[in-house]
């Protein structure tokens, strides 16, 4: 096997080494993106779950506050 004059044999090993590490960095970056996306989805689901449970478990204070706020709003419109 002959090596072309513009690509000496000493450059192939560092190039392969560099490509190897670039591939590792790429995979780690992709993994981090997926991890961040998963964390965002998890937070989004927790907020949705909290909102659902809050609406389903309204306390008497919440109901009274809503009624009083509505009453005050209707009086102010007059």
UniProtKB/TrEMBL annotation:
<protein>
    <submittedName>
        <fullName>Uncharacterized protein</fullName>
    </submittedName>
</protein>
């Amino acid at each position: 096997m002959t090596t072309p004059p513009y690509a000496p044999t000493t450059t192939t090993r560092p190039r392969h080494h560099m490509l190897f590490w670039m591939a590792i960095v790429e995979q780690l970056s992709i993994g981090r993106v997926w991890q961040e996306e998963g964390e965002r989805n998890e937070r989004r689901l927790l907020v949705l779950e909290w909102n659902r449970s809050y609406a389903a478990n309204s306390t008497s204070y919440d109901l009274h506050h809503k009624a009083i706020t509505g009453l005050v709003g209707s009086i102010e419109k007059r």
